[in-house]
From TrEMBL:
Keywords: Signal. The keyword Glycoprotein does not apply. It comes from Vreelandella nigrificans. Residues 1-23 form the signal peptide. This is Sel1 repeat family protein. It holds the Pfam family Sel1. The keyword ATP-binding does not apply.
Length: 313
């Protein structure tokens, strides 16, 4: 639901009442959807789509693909709307249609058809289409297997900010697959992806900081990234965190408790006066989960989270 709402908000911000090509019917559909009138929105989108509005065709594809907001999911209908938008050059529709062919969702499974639509989308600069072309070359699906071609496509997507492509390109440089072996370059791409929250990149970059591969060894940064990846459920990161040991975990829990009290148990004047001593955002992000757990555990135990038991007698 949230992803589709972002699509609607983006379309609305770009086109609502601004371009003649976007009919009043489509504008009405956007307004109805944002007001929670989903049945009315779909009716308006259908009418606009039948009038040839390509954005309405794409939006209907997303609606039936995901079954948004209680609306019925229908993969076959979704594929039909994606096809209509894709044939008129809509790059996101082309990528989504390619994926449906790749997994056989609403259409017969076909690697060749998947590649066909990923290619036309990628040629228009869609970074998801470019990334998927990289995947197809990596796996030799619908195209001859070629790590070199895969790297070319991953790079095109990565340069546009696609986190999955950035992480994949980091893997390729780390292992010298399709590109020259370079830990330094791998670290650069992992960092780009890690900054966007990619768990694989966070873990791989953490290992590089821990071992000093391609970067200066830094155990603090390594621990930070291990935690970030572990909190997203990355199995290897969780295992690595387990190796830190009980003493280190206790230290993290104590720090989390202190941060929680710092943020929640002081009056506004104190926080304003001492704001410079509060940890920077990068460090705060490390311990957010432990801070939430500290608060929940204290409340469940009937204790005041603002009381530091080590200082309370």
């Amino acid at each position: 639901m949230h992803h589709f709402r972002k699509i609607i908000l983006l379309i609305g911000a770009l086109f609502f009442g601004s371009l003649p090509a976007f009919s009043q019917t489509f504008d009405a559909g956007i307004e109805a959807y944002l007001n929670g009138n989903y049945a009315t929105a779909v009716e308006s989108f259908n009418l606009a789509a039948e009038q040839g509005n390509v954005e309405a065709q794409y939006v209907l594809g997303v609606i039936y693909d995901n079954g948004e907001d209680g609306l019925p999911q229908d993969n076959h209908v979704a594929a039909q709307w994606y096809l209509r938008a894709a044939e008129r050059g809509h790059p996101e529709a082309q990528t989504r249609l390619g994926y449906m062919y790749l997994v056989g969702k609403g259409v017969p499974q076909s690697d060749l058809e998947a590649v066909r639509w990923f290619q036309v989308s990628a040629a228009q600069g869609d970074n998801s289409g470019q990334y998927n072309m990289g995947v197809m070359y990596t796996n030799g699906a619908g195209v001859p297997q070629s790590d070199r071609e895969a790297a070319i496509w991953y790079r095109r997507a990565a340069e546009q900010g696609n986190a999955s492509a950035q992480s994949q390109l980091g893997d390729m440089y780390s292992e010298g697959i399709g590109v020259p072996l370079s830990d330094e370059t791998a670290a650069i791409w992992y960092r780009h992806a890690a900054d966007q929250g990619d768990a694989n990149a966070q873990y791989k970059l953490a290992v590089m900081y821990d071992e000093g591969w391609g970067v200066n060894r830094d155990s603090v940064k390594a621990s930070s990234l291990f935690v970030d990846a572990a909190l997203q459920g990355h199995r290897e990161a969780r295992e690595r965190m387990g190796q830190i040991g009980k003493e280190a975990l206790n230290h993290l829990e104590q720090e989390a408790a202190e941060l929680w009290r710092f943020a929640n148990c002081r009056n506004a004047d104190d926080q304003m006066n001492d704001n410079s001593s509060y940890p920077p955002p990068s460090e705060r992000g490390l311990l957010q989960q432990l801070m939430r757990e500290y608060e929940q555990q204290a409340i469940q135990a009937g204790k005041d989270p603002c009381v530091d038991e080590r200082m309370a007698g």
